Amino acid sequence: MIDLDARTRVLREVGLECAKELADMALAVDADPDDMAPHLGSQALDLIRLVCTPARFRDRPLRLDGQEYGDTTCLQRVVGTAALARGDAGAVLAAPGPALAGIVVDVLGGPEQQERFHRALADGRTWSFFAMTEPRGGNDATGMLTRLDRTPDGRALHGAKRYIGNGARGDVGVVFARTGPSPLSIRAALVEAPLADCARRPLDTIGLKGARLSELTFAGTPVAEESLLGNHLPASRRGMWGAIRTFLSMRVQVAAMAVGTAQALFDRVREHRPDAPGVDEVRLSLDAAHTVLYEAAAAVDHEPERADPASVAKLVGTALGVRVARWAARSLGPASLLTDPLLDKRVRDVHGFEFMEGTTNIQLLQVAQARLRATGG
Amino acid sequence: MLEYERLAHAEGLAAGLRAALSGADARETAPGPVVAVVDVPEGARVVANALAEREGVAFVVTGSRRDYRPDVALAVAAARLGSTRRLLDRAVEHLAGREAGGEPLTRKQLVAGAIGDLVTATTRTRHELAAARPVAADVAAVHDRIAAIDWEVAKLFGANGYLTEHPARAGYVSTLVGNTWVAS
What we know:
The complex is a heterodimer.
Chain A: H1 6-31, H2 43-51, E1 62-64, E2 67-69, H3 74-93, H4 99-108, H5 111-120, E3 127-131, E4 147-151, E5 154-164, E6 170-178, E7 186-192, E8 198-202, E9 214-223, H6 240-272, H7 279-302, H8 308-331, H9 336-339, H10 341-352, H11 360-374
Parallel strand pairs in A: 3-6
Antiparallel strand pairs in A: 1-2, 4-5, 5-9, 6-7, 8-9
Chain B: H1 2-11, H2 13-20, H3 26-29, E1 34-37, E2 46-47, H4 50-54, E3 58-61, H5 70-96, E4 99-100, E5 103-104, H6 109-131, H7 136-156, H8 169-179
Antiparallel strand pairs in B: 1-3, 2-3, 4-5
Helix pairs in contact in B: 1-2, 1-5, 2-5, 5-6, 5-7, 5-8, 6-7, 7-8
């Protein structure tokens, strides 16, 4: 069991307050995820950005209820995300700021690259993107096809990325690509708008529309040599090493959104039908899922070489989310999905987490491999 | 029942649903305030749903005097099951055409196992449907099973199946259809 410290508890409480703001914008963001202007500058979106920004790059200190925050831990971010997703996970994903790309820039970037990246996002109106997944290979980095070819002026990106959050509207992002055939040749490039010779289009998803998943096609997009992340690091730590560390954080963040959305669905049933059959069982599962989640986040902070706790958290969170969604729709009566737009939206959303940062089968393999390694199998 | 399932399997959810509803006025026999139909009755108030429109399914507000018919709800479940089998066929085709590690995904044990589970689950559910009594509890159980299978099938398509342009959207629409026919 994880005992949350005072700072983390305050972050959770403020997150729950901000969740109300996110719930209020949820349906508008779902209906038109490109029209974010009315929501920019809200306390909730600002909190999301500041929590994900290293202390030295914040435009103002992060102080909440008398607590001052330095660089946030994975546990703090996860506790905050789960609380915010109780308002709306789609709105969390629609927030401008460093998001997932920030994690990789903070791990792999040099001081100047980090400065460039975070300054570009400081206005609270600029999105970032993290481009790893490809149309054919999914998240399988070893099969990555996107190339970073040498040119007389530096490098050029060729290839396609798909299901990239905020990819069509991000002004700054990180793109993973190959500089050669070996696993060590996978590198991350920091790119900034305007992206020359790059076609970007949003994809229409069934839920989580705020994430504005997009497809990016690079046809020789120029990248300066100094924009490759990790030039200051040993070759073994320049590319996938940083990506893998990022994946672990991402995985627990996705789990946090799934658990937060499941909690929101539970709240909806409690509000309208407090005596619905199965309430106690769902509450028990949610309590357990929060514990699994927090322990996985603490493991990312303290045992970053272990992948299995993050996978377990994602498996528990996504399966629970879908189960609670089905229970909520049944509990709220016939046609509830047609008469309660927020219920319908959350049910659509909660199915999307399955496809983010590794599907169930991928996570199951991670968990099994960890167990087999531990037992010498 | 078999006919509704066969039609949905061959032609899609809307074709099966239309046949399942052919002997009843959906607005007078559904359990809730909104019901799924294919042919919108004249003068009916439509509840807009973009995903359903793409599947040829509409939702209309029901009448104030309703007499719930669980037998119709079971016929709707049969149509849904046909749609499930149609999607499973597509999913298997999709997986057979994708490779990982130099072999088709269908050769991967986790994937092959999932397909085996789903074929078994659809067979079991067809027999449950045939044995179901026209009572609310049986209707709920069968529709719930179908929703669970639909989700497992959707997962086989990966993130592609989460796009509105993908045929896997029929699974989500089927869930909405079922939600209008299950009494609480």
